[in-house]
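dumping this here before i forget
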Amino acid sequence: MFKLHKLLAIAALSVILAGVAAFACTSEKIVVQTVEVEVAREVRVVETVVVEKEVVVQQEVAVEVEKVVTATAEPTATPPAAAGTEGLRDVPRDRTLVIAIGGQQLDPANMNLLSGGGLSRIRTFSNNSWLEFLFYFGHHDGKVRPWLAKDWQYNDTFDEITITLREDAHWSDGTPFTAEDVRFTWQDLIIDNPSSAFHFRLKGAVESVEAPDDYTIKLNLTRPDQRIFFILFQENSEEQLPVLPKHIWEGKDPETFENVDISQGWPVGTGAFKLVKAAPEALIFDRDDNWWAAKAGVAPLPAVKRIVFAPSGDEQSIALRLARNEIDLQFTFQPGLFELTRVRNPKVISWQDDPFIHDPNGCMISMTMNNKVAPFDDPAVRRALNFAIDKQSVANLAFEGTTMPVAVPLAIGFPGPAAYYEEIRDLIEADGTDQHNPEKAAEIMEAAGYSRNDDGFWTDANGEVLLIELWNPSPGYWKMSRAGTAVVESAQRAGFDAVERRGLTGFWGKQAVGDLPSWLTWHCGSTVEPYQTYVHWHSNNSADIGETVAYFLSAPRYENPEYDALVDQMGMLEASPDNAEYIDLFRKATEIILRDMPEIQLVIDGHINAMNTTYWTGWPTSQTADLRSERIWAEFYHAIIRLQPSG
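structure:
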């Protein structure tokens, strides 16, 4: 399904660069081990010279070799403790899990999951350590796993949900985990608190939350919806609603409470790990030997005794640290650099080792357009841009050709969405939505009354040039950086005056309130069936300019009653490729999306998750796992607590 390119020639880099490294940085010592790799063909690759401290040279070369010698560092018989653990109790390196989370430093002073950036704090480290959910979902085997909850049930009209909690769970300070914690978090801290990061999404779906007794939750929905429980409370991928301890948060300002005080045991959670150090160079969590799940016989104490979340700089630095066995897990890699890394250290694996492939991903890289501001308030401009942008160029530049262009945000790497895609394939092929077609873009623009001026730019009826201002959260995200270049350059070639604005400062807040014209982001959702994503464009999730949208994936602010009616009907039907009524609605909704183009889907976002087996085994792979290897999704927590020492 993916266009895959095995970048074997990267294996030759260490030999070629041995002399270059010596020339560029002769003071650095290279520790080598001999590994033989056969390469049968000549290709052009971008070559990275890695020495002890930093990357010093990059150049493009042609290589053709039969065998190569590469460099890696073997762990010593007694591995040293992980960096940044000074002053803490001794935990050997081979019982420590080191996770690279990118960037240059962390913000150790804020673990508030409800204030701005809360979802990022959940997905970066909290859901791998101290935070647990009522339910988990295995995206690889498709099973819902009750955890802090035992079960759930809808009423006959699908507008009430009853959740039954476990009676043996407790917080890390020993306080029982009860329904009042759930009610307090979801009702008082989120639904009744417009400043909460989750307010608009939860308030749009849930009218109120009740706790009839200590272990029962009742959700009163705003309208009948038999999908919302899975989307909001079970899948825990893009939307991860936390439950927080009432006895800690009551009386605190949910906007300003930082939730960090190691002396008081904060943050208090139900997870298997407790915070022991918070510093810019590392967030460190030690195993909680009083963890409720071990005491209740739900799961054994994890073999992992310490987790270190380390800001590891750029990808080249991370690659070097993986080769030295200083890092156990890196979230996402460029394909070529990953191949180079696992040649240096053959104990580094990915989701599927051979043939080389990304971990199946639920997200697309997309160009999101504010449908309420010019020129993106005209569907013709949005649709023309879709054909003007060279999506294959995005795939080549940002993913080295290892992903594919897309038309709609269906995660076709998963069995469910792949089956539904076949039901609309004819619509996409007839329209050519995923193809680069600047001629068609020009036809659409001319039919809508636009023309090109003497400089070749598209202008409106008043002769004003259409400005395509694309915001990009780069340089924080290397894939976005490269994707932005491809998008802007191809749009310019098609006559659009396109410019790119880069930077993270204020980015997420601006897009949430409609203060950006267009931007690159991810559209994630349909990992099971289309409704998961199509509901993001429902008018209920839109908002006026200046108001916060219900969910960041609803930021296009698309509003169409005809589309809403179709999605509402989809939400009340059993989702199945064999359900003719559901498929008919799905096809009609897709036709509207292809016509109005509220958002341009570019390519499938591929993640190569590098997992180091030097110290830890049991990583999730395509051959063995019931879970995915996507660390930012909640289910990966269960991979962590199952890991076993390699020795």
